[in-house]
Structure formats: C-alpha cells, structure tokens
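Case study: ATP-dependent helicase.
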Amino acid sequence: MLTTKSLPFPLTGDQSFYEALGDWIGDVFYDILPEKGLELRDEQIFMAFQLEQAFKKKSILFAEAGVGTGKTLAYLLYSIPYARYTGKPAIIACSDETLIEQLVKKDGDLQKIEDLLGLSVDVRLAKSREQYLCLKKLDKATSKGDDEELDEVYEQIPDFVHGNGSMTSFYPYGDRKEFPNLNDDQWKQVNWDSLQDCLSCDVRHRCGQTLNREHYRAAGDIIICSHDFYMEHIWTKDARKREGQLPLLPEGSAVIFDEGHLLEFAAQKALTYRTSLSNLSLILEKLTSNDIREKTLYLIDRIVEQHDEWFAAISKHADYESGAERRAIARHDEVIVNSKKLKASIDQLLEELVFESELYVIDEYDLKIVEEYLELVLFSLKLLVDDDGAIIWLEESGDDETLVIMPRLVEEILREEVFSKKIPTIFSSATLSVKEDFSYLAKSLGIDDYDAFSVSSPFDYEENMDVTIHLTDEFEKGEKEALLLNSHQGGSLLLFNSREDQDLFRFGYSHELEGSSSLFFEGDEEISTLVEKFQHETSSIFASHHLWEGLDVPGLSLSQVIIDSLPFPPKDPVFEAKRKHSEDPVHQVDLPYMLLRLQQGIGRLIRTSSDKGSVHIFLGDEEQKWLDEITAILPVTPTIAK
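Here is what the predicted structure looks like once written out:
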C-alpha cells in the first residue's frame, strides 16, 4: 500500500486519486459526519457528486444550492485534498472582505472540518491592498496631530517597523481588522492607495502588506481572497512578471468563487483607470520640492491649471439628474478641447523629466511615482478623446472628484484570462440563476462551456418565514420601517439599495427609533467588527447597503429583514452600456439583476433549521408593476399590505 502522508486518506497502487477521493467523501458523508451527530442531506450528497465530476474534468461548474445545503463544507472537502495532491493551494475568492472573515470565524466551516475530521488545514487570508496600513500615509496623517484615534494606530505598530529587532522577528500586521474603531473616512487617510509606489518604498520590507503577502503565498491548502483581489491578480500578473515581481497570488490548483454571481463587478472594477481632481497637484508637489529647472516649474504650474480646467469641463457636462453615484460624461467639444491641451502639456513634461533625471536633481522614488501617474492620466485622456467604446464616468467624494474609465464589457478578457485555464472552477451561491436559467451569468462572464445544477434549501420556509409586501409611497415608507423596527423583539437587518438611501433613513427617521436597541450603520466602523457586534446583541438594528449577500447571522440576532426598495441596478454608465447593447434591457439586464439580489437579501433571514423570522419588502408606486415577478421567486406566499 502506498500512503500519501499529506492526504486525509490512503492511496493504493491500483487506485487513482479521484477514486480514493470519492471513497473518502462517501465515508465522510455516510459514516463520519452522521456519527458526529450531523444530519445527512440528499441535497449535499447530490452537490458532492457534481463537484467530484468538476474536479475530475477540470471544468467550470455553477453550483446553485440553497441556504442550509452545506455547499461551503462540500467544496472545502474537495479543495483540501486536491490542493495537497497537486501541491498548489486552492483559491477561494469571496465577494468581499466580510465573507472572508465569515469563512474563517470561530465555529465556521473551516473549523468544523478540522474538528470533525481531525485535520489541520493551512488556510491563509489574502486581502485587497486597500485593507492594509500604509506606513507613509500614517506618518503624514499623524504628523498633523489632530486625530487621537490615528495616533493610537501609530502606537500599535510593532517595534521592528521602527528598526528595532532583526528580520527574524518580523510578522504580519496592519490588517484593517486590527483597527476596528476607525470609520471608513479615517481608514482612507492611512491605508494603501493607488498613489503608493510600493516597489520603490524605502520601508517596503517592514510594511504590513508585504509581510502579509509573503505569509499567504506559503499556504499549503487554501488561500482566501476577495473577488476584487483575485481579479486584480489576473489583470496585473503579466506586468508584474515583466517588472521582476511575483504575481499577487501563486498559481492555484482550483478556484472557487463564493457568491459567484458578483464576479463580473469585481472584474469591471479591476480594469478601471482612475484619475482624481486632487491627485495630480499632490503628485506634482513631489517634483517642486526638488531642485528642478525654472522652465519645468512653469510647465508644472500650467499643467495644474489646465488639469483644473479639464475637470471643470468634465463636471460641467456630467449627468447630475439620474442621482447615480457614477455620473455619465458627455463628450462635449469643450471636454475634448481641454483634454487635447492637457495631453500636449503632459507629453512635454514627460520629455522634460527625462532631461531632469539625467541631472540627478530629482529623488528617484518621487520621479517614478510622478511618471507612472502621468502615464495613467495620458491613457485616460487618450480613451476620452478617441471614444473607442470605453465607459467613462465621474464620481464625487467629499470635495474631490474622480474620472473613471473602464472597458464596456469584460467577458472577452475573462474568457481568455480566467476561463480558458484547465483547472476546476466552481461558482457557488444560493442564487446563480433566474428560474434555473444560468445564461444571464454565463454570458456576462464570457463562459461558453459549463456544467450547472440547482438544489433548493432543505429548510421549511412555510413554517419558519413570513413575507409581507408593503405597497406604499416614499413619504410613508420611513415611518412604517421605524414602526416595524420598534415593535420587533429580535435583531433587524435593514437593507438599502445605495448609500444615499441609507443616509436618507439615517438622518430622516433614525431619531424615531427607541433607544433600547443598538443601531449600527455600515461605514461607521470596520465592517466585520460591526457584524460581530450585531451578532452578539439580540435586539440590535443593522442598516447596510452592501450586505445583501454574505451575512451569516443565525438565531434571534437576525430575525427580521426589511428591504427598503427593490435592488435594481443604478442608472449609471456601466449599466447603461449593458442596456444599450441588449435587445431587451429590462428583461435581460435590470430584472435578472434585481431578482438575484433580492433573493440574496431575503436569504439573510433563515440560516439554520431552527431560525424563524419575517421579511418586509417595500414597493413604491413605480415598483409595484413587478409584483408578480417578485412573488414568483419568494420561498413563501406573501401577505400584501397597503
């Protein structure tokens, strides 16, 4: 008998890995788990068989399995032995950082597998770069001395960062989760952003992001990351190799996209080019602090002035009527003229910087950052002027504005860079299809050949869930939501379709809520910290615009879900481009997106067989025409309230 020590089962000479894996999975489901008191579910056995075929064929599988089918446990049981067999970690890409924390939390599925099967699983987290502290930005923020909480972050930094101790004492630090009390705005002052040139940074070897990256690359079994980070890895891996850097992620044996219906949005985000109103002047300041020629200084002043005029023209011709966060930009003559003027000046500055660099009067680190950013602005200008089908919009945040440019559709790039690889690729979610039709998702992602299955939840929804659809207008909605929150005895999740809607409730109606319940708003603290607080208080209220999926809070702590409005996609340039290239925009773009997201929101309520609770869906006058479509995807027959 040949025994492979790292595998959780023996391999014999006359048995293939897949045969041994299938036998072991059968033992786990039919013998080991029942002996440990876990209930055997037909849905989970069916899913396990489908997963076995996907791993054996190295194919793409849409695994749609309702809440409670144990889909996470099933794909982990295959991923761990497969990673050890191939010698490469399996990569699990979650929709966001919240889901990453849910997967590795105490009493989560990974710990269950370790406890039930006596396994020690080497799992490591690879979070997006924005989730890590930037030492350079922290120094700048704390030098102002006007924020005590940021000063506390500085005090938490390990001693070796300041040069005390040898490299053997280094360990990963600087994760967003380590600073839970910082709100989103405070975190943006000290976290990594795209203006940081890590390769040239003088403290990169002591940087928390660098140390975390070295840590997760050595994972033996599983690396867990976000969709955003996985897609950033895909788009940057070739460029990083050309520059002599390692890709963000190692080569994986298999990829599992948890909440896989959201992958398209991560792909779009990873491909965007962003240019902000404030950044150019901040970047060029790095040059003016050096001993450069007067001619170059005058050119820099001119570019800053032209850049402001360029953004003024863009803002002037942006769409402010739709109310979307992404404001469409019209290619007006004024915008094009200003774009060409700025492009010519930046081209001239880049030529002058070549001469300046030969004089060795500019700090090499500063020069590299400036040149890279100017190249990015030039690329944005080219796309804006040439009108090659790119989607362009304007975003506003506080006093700043950002121009964002991305390809119209990402399916061709995904088809080539992600789904042409011959490795097992699993999409896992409770909602991947609309009425068991997977074509909407497959087409959006550029997937031509795939297997798919759909199994329903084993939970008794008729017994444990009631759904009420409220037909009301905007003036009454907030008051009715406040009444529902005040009268409920357990915890409530209040879901909004945008940050603006969340703020509208916060400032318009939260004062009507009784003080006996804790009230949490997304954005006030680090998200997983808020989730943990919400879970531990059985009568709290959590208002969120992102947690339509991924939130797993069983019991009384989440026994009421209130859906403020239907989660239709926004009227922004990204979705307008999809609508424009669709034969039936409403039924091919808007409605499938809304119904998938609505099912996810409803799915936050019942997480175990003993959970009970209520769902309240509010429909305004314009939304009431979709009543039949909504009723068709609900797990129970709703009550209609007027």
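For the exam, be able to explain this: DSSP finds 24 helices and 18 strands in the chain.
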